[in-house]
Amino acid sequence: MKPAHEQITLIGAGLNGPLLAILLRQRGFAVEIYERRPDMRTVRMSAGRSINLALSTRGIHGLQQAGLWEQMRSIIIPMKGRMMHSVAGELTFQPYGKNETEVINSISRAELNIALMNSAEEQGATIHYNQRCSGYDTKTGAIRVRNERTGEETIRKASVVIGCDGSASAIRAEMLKLNRFNFSQQYLDYGYKELTIPAGPEGEHRLETHALHIWPRGNHMLIALPNIDGTFACILFLPFEGADSFAGLTTPADVMRFFQSRFPDTVPLMPNLADNYFANPTGAMVTIKCSPWHVEGRALLLGDAAHAIVPFFGQGINCGFEDCTRLVELLDRHGADWPGVFAEFEGERKVNTDAIADMAIENFTEMRDRVADSRFLLRKKIELALEAKYPRLFVPKYSMVTFHRIPYSVALARGVVQDRMLAELGESIHRVEDIDWGKADRLIRRDLTPLEMQQ
User: Fold this and answer.
1) Which of 148, 226, 276, 312 has the fewest C-beta atoms under 10 angstroms from its C-beta?
2) What CA–CA distance (Å, rounded) separates 310 from 26?
């Protein structure tokens, strides 16, 4: 492929910007990135930005394409399933996949971001830090950049701009001014707060290492993901207002009473709980959908800038990385035909990002309310039994999303069909051994076609 001579300007050096820069540099494009924050390699990251990520097949594919996956193996912890904690401290383990090869990987956001930035610069991309994009002219392609340290503003001409600048995208804010630009945002009534379970005296994990821990409590939830240093990154999800809410926890005593009654087995593990709680901010969670994602061949939105999703399917990073790999695959196919590539990219991706946005909200209810329910756990066992018997026909929705690169829209549609099957097969049984296999065979062969496992 012969790349265009113009420079590609990326806004945002979070996770998607540096990965896309690497992939574009591999294809010979000149790339520069403008990032509003300081270089995180030289400045301590602010609290609330270090929540661990759940890296799975789609994200791993992106790192493989960038040549980074092997070096990431030293900073990930495979999680084989969910470990549910009851109020009484009883543990129930639910595997994620059909075997131990199907895992999700806990990885530090900061460590991953640093590795991506290092590689992008090694590949020849230029990253400008403390440089906030404060405006974009959709007609001329000029971007306005403000130096966050001096306040000085400059105008930079850019022939192709890709907004990788997250849910508060400056590029999208300018596109909102265009005629017939569609935009919706929906905030959950729930917020989140980052907490930490410190390592044990020998640097060991004080809970099962290879699991994502969940304390499901109906209208609220705590989760914990392992770090390689023996700590766990915890996230508390609560309503903003009302009973058992962030608004109701105003003093250290309130926090301690709440945890002792709702998550009592965590209290001995978190000696600095109250200080930790008040030191970290409370974050909001939003779903954003918009269209179009592009302005002819001049500008494109990618990742959260185009389709922010809530974190409950663990697909934010994976979906964004899949954006990057699909975009460069279209460039490989068509060359630097930016109007055509951008239009085809949006046409292919939007139906899928809308699907994962909806599934992520649905999964919040599942994690918060249902994972400890005996009927739900039986259903999961039935899913795995059906997958074992019909591996190309019945693949659980979670597995389609997490362990394959099957389009999200296909996973959503097949999930609806499979949910009906599971309800019918599980309605009158209490053990997986009692599945009516004749009925299962009829339903599956009637309603499901073989899956194409890779795109």
Assistant:
1) 148
2) 31
User: What residue ranges do the domains of the chain occupy?
Assistant: 8-73+108-184+287-359, 186-284, 373-447
CATH ID of 8-73+108-184+287-359, from 3.50.50.60, 3.40.980.10, 2.60.40.10, 3.40.190.10: 3.50.50.60
CA distance 170 to 186: 18
Contacts of 430 (CB under 8 A, 6+ apart): 378
Give the SS3 label for residue 178: coil
Q: Strands across the sheet with 212-216, in order?
A: 91-95, 81-85, 212-216, 221-226, 232-239, 182-197, 282-291
pTM of the model: 0.94
CA–chain centroid gap for 62, Å, is 14
- Over the stretch 248-290, which tens digit does the pLDDT of each residue have? 999 999 999 999 999 999 999 999 999 999 999 999 999 999 9
- Angstrom distance (rounded) from CA 200 to CA 234: 16
Which DSSP category does 165 fall into?
-
3-state helix, strand, coil in the chain (%, to 5): 40, 25, 35
- Burial (CB < 10 A; 0-12, 13-18, 19+), residue 269, is middle
Contact predicate 234/307, CB 8 Å: no
* The pLDDT value given to residue 18: 98
- Sequence-distant (6+) residues with CB within 8 A of 149 are 130
CA 376 to chain CA centroid, Å, is 24
pLDDT above 70 for 40 = yes
Instruction: Give the tens place of pLDDT for each residue, 130-165.
Output: 999 999 999 999 999 999 999 999 999 999 999 999
Residue 147's CB is within 10 A of a number of other CB atoms, namely 14
